[in-house]
Every structure is written in C-alpha cells, then in structure tokens.
Description:
By secondary structure, the chain is α/β, with parallel strands linked by helices. It is built from four helices and seven strands. It has helices spanning 37-43, 57-67, 85-95, 184-191; strands at 74-76, 103-105, 124-126, 146-148, 170-172, 197-198, 201-202. The chain has a seven-stranded mixed β-sheet with strand order 1-2-3-4-5-6-7, with helices on one face. The relative contact order is 0.09.
Amino acid sequence: xxxxxxxxxxxxxxxxxxxxxxxxxxxxxxxxxxxxxxxxxxxxxxxxxxxxxxxxxxxxxxxxxxxxxxxxxxxxxxxxxxxxxxxxxxxxxxxxxxxxxxxxxxxxxxxxxxxxxxxxxxxxxxxxxxxxxxxxxxxxxxxxxxxxxxxxxxxxxxxxxxxxxxxxxxxxxxxxxxxxxxxxxxxxxxxxxxxxxxxxxxxxxxxxxxxxxxxxxxxxxxx
Length: 223
C-alpha cells in the first residue's frame, strides 16, 4: 500500500507548499531533484509528478532565499541517492553555497570529484563510502580539523601533503587501498607532522620515526 507521502517522494522540501521552514533549519534535507517527466513515463510513475506551474523570476528568487544554505553551520546531506547527472549538479550547486558550514556529512553519495568546491569554514567533514580515488578530488577545506574518508578507493598517499598547512588533527582512512601500503602510518605522519590521530589511534612513538632507508655500500678487497 502506498503511503500518504507517496505523491511527494520526488519533490524537494522547498517545493512543498504552506510551510515556513528555511534551509538552514533542516538537519538532513533531501536536496536531489527527481526524475524527468520522460523518465517517470517510462517507469509508469507519471502520477507522482504534479503539474508544474510556470515559475516567475520573483518566485525563483524567493525560493533561493528560502533555501538559505549560506547560513547553514551544521548539515547532513548523506544518502542522497545521486543516480543521475542532473541530480549531481543540483547537489554541487548547494555545496557551493555552504560558505559558513562547519560540520558536513556527505556519506554514501557516490561522489567522485569535489575539487571545484570550496568550504572555507568547514572543520569536520565526513565523506565515507564514496568513490574518491585521490586526495586531489576532495573539496578545498583550509580550516579542516577532522576528516573521515573511510571506505573510498584511495590507492596512494599522493596529495596528502596538501593538508600540511591546515589544522588537521584527526584523519580516518580505514578500508582504503592505501592502508595496506608499507609503513603506512609512518608515511602519513611524516607528511602531516601536526596530525594527532590516525584511524582512531593516537600518534605513537614508533609513528614518529622516519621511513626506513636502506644504504648500500660498495665494498672492495685490498690484497
């Protein structure tokens, strides 16, 4: 049986009439856009799409003010089910407006590249269970203190030194291929000397020693 909310399942929160909620008042909004009319027709779900009235420029501006993402300080945009390109673009459009966000969760969104996004005040970022393959694909986060990248596909530590000049204290890289790199913890701490916790384990004395260097000497015998 269909739930009473079934007719609203493809609507964004700001498309539902008669409410006075603003974007920065939501803890976990649904920001992705629904399928196109053509796709709904092929799914035989055209009944879920209400007839849309022509939107004036004034209404567009009012909707933008209602979203109010610029004033969000803490936001959870996890599990957005971003299956189509137009959904990803709408998602990134909102990320670009998060100029004051300090804590942000983007778990399990199939994200690949956010390098064009800047989050100037973000102190805590959780992007677990996405598809990042490099530190270069992360957003610009100059004030980051706690970064969680568990269950991505980061194969090497290349680019990790970009966080050397940030106040990063805690980093989680569990279940990434780079975790199996030889002398993994020592390499991370040598690139990030101010880091205090890696994968939930505080910095240990043995983590401070430099990576092993092997010296080969040429020997000769004097007869």
